[in-house]
């Protein structure tokens, strides 16, 4: 049964690039195929990218950033294929996702991005330029005035190609001068940007600071009421999910995430964490926010990305880690057998995961004396095997005996009672 904390899904409002008819609705922009693929060693084939894009559409992702078309011919072709196939297919809710391509702020990149995404029903160009002092001085070697002019003219150029959905990102916004941010964002709005994405590119802000940044941009940028504010939080201090939620609380209505939180360096805000936090707490703590994501497809998306990228999840990864619904200590197991809400705020079924046994119970050394109350025959019998297991393996050194180990062991005649 769905957990009581997670309310039923609501209908998503109609898609309009620069406006969301319901102010409580939060768009999910997935960049697994772009920023996620920038994780060292995570290169995907075109076929794998297409599979992931299809799964993202099934999940109910609003915007799929399919790649960086100017980066390589392969990326261009992959984005184009996704635009044609996923960008024209209606999902389970009758929605067609936006297909987005990234570009630097130059005509060649922007034109290439447009050539790749234009086949989608809802194409978007995402263009970016750095606005922090350190990036402008050392990386771009450009003055503020030059950066301002490039941003303004390139957003205008993107719109001139016939694209009515243009996202602009001031890279390293987390370390940029506030007054300069308000100025450049105001100029790109006038030039036709429909979404303003605020990246904490180096993951340096704390949640209170990032929330303040979004609130200040909302309060001080001319014309901001005519566009959508977005977050893009890197995870260098392990704060990307917290920062993303702080951004949503402060008024951002597009959140950029990746499946399993993969991405440059320490990764990005993870889709499953952000979505489930909004699902569990959106109503009570975040002023009624909700997303269009169907969490039942989270497990499949997570496993697909893990397998294709080869980036294995840590067992204790929130929501999708192997231990996310495993209960080791005897006290916890006792609680779980009496009422699952004692130690679970989400049911595995909510994210499309079947429990491996009735209560997610793991046989380990912490509760090696625990025998009472286990409902499953298999788990009850497991207690009787424990002494044998201990003497055979030396259980103190045997970190964890999984259900699969036990099934194999109890079916072995050595361990027959
Ligand atoms: O981290 C970053 O700043 C980015 C932008 C291109 C959005 O990935």
From TrEMBL:
Domain of life: Eukaryota
Any one of the GO CC terms: chloroplast
Gene Ontology terms, MF aspect: 2-isopropylmalate synthase activity
Domain Pyruvate carboxyltransferase: 26-299
The protein's Enzyme Commission number: 2.3.3.13
Region called Disordered, residue ranges: 1-23
Pathway of action: Amino-acid biosynthesis; L-leucine biosynthesis; L-leucine from 3-methyl-2-oxobutanoate: step 1/4
Keywords: Amino-acid biosynthesis, Branched-chain amino acid biosynthesis, Leucine biosynthesis, Transferase
Enzyme class: transferase
Gene Ontology BP term (one): L-leucine biosynthetic process
Family: Belongs to the alpha-IPM synthase/homocitrate synthase family.
Protein name per the record: 2-isopropylmalate synthase
Residues of the full protein shown: 64 to 480 of 533
């Amino acid at each position: 049964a769905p957990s009581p904390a997670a309310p039923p899904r609501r209908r998503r409002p109609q898609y309009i690039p620069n406006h969301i008819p319901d102010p409580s609705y939060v768009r999910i922009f997935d960049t697994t195929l772009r920023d996620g693929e920038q994780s060292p060693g995570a290169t995907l084939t075109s076929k794998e990218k297409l599979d992931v894009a299809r799964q993202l559409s099934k999940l109910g992702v609003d915007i799929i950033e399919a790649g960086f078309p100017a980066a390589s011919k392969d990326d261009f072709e992959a984005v184009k294929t996704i635009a044609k196939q996923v960008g024209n297919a209606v999902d389970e809710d009758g929605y067609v996702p936006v297909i987005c391509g990234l570009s630097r702020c130059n005509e060649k990149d922007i034109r290439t991005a447009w050539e790749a995404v234009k086949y989608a029903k809802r194409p978007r160009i995402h263009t970016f330029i750095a606005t922090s002092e350190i990036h402008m001085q050392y990386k771009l070697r450009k003055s503020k005035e030059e950066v301002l002019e490039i941003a303004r003219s390139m957003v205008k150029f993107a719109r001139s190609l016939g694209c009515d959905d243009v996202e602009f990102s001031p890279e390293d916004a987390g370390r940029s001068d506030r007054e300069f941010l308000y100025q450049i964002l105001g100029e790109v709005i006038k030039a036709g940007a429909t979404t303003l994405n605020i990246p904490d590119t180096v993951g340096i802000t704390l949640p209170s600071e990032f929330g303040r940044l979004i609130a200040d941009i909302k309060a001080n940028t001319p014309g901001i009421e005519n566009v959508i504010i977005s977050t893009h939080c890197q995870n260098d201090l392990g704060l990307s999910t917290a920062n993303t939620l702080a951004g949503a609380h402060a008024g951002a209505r597009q959140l950029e995430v990746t499946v399993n939180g993969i991405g440059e360096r320490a990764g990005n805000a993870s889709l499953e964490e952000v979505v489930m936090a909004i699902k569990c707490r959106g109503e009570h703590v975040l002023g009624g926010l909700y997303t269009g994501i169907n969490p039942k497809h989270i497990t499949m998306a997570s496993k697909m990305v893990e397998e294709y990228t080869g980036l294995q999840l840590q067992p204790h990864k929130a929501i999708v880690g192997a231990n996310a619904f495993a209960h080791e200590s005897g006290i916890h197991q006792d609680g779980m057998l009496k009422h699952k809400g004692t130690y679970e705020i989400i049911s595995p079924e909510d994210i499309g995961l079947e429990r491996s046994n009735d209560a997610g119970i793991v046989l380990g050394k912490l509760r090696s004396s625990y025998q009472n109350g286990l409902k499953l025959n298999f788990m009850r019998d497991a207690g009787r095997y424990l002494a044998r297991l201990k003497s055979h393996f030396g259980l103190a050194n045997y970190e964890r005996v999984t259900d699969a180990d036990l099934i194999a062991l109890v079916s072995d005649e050595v361990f027959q009672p």
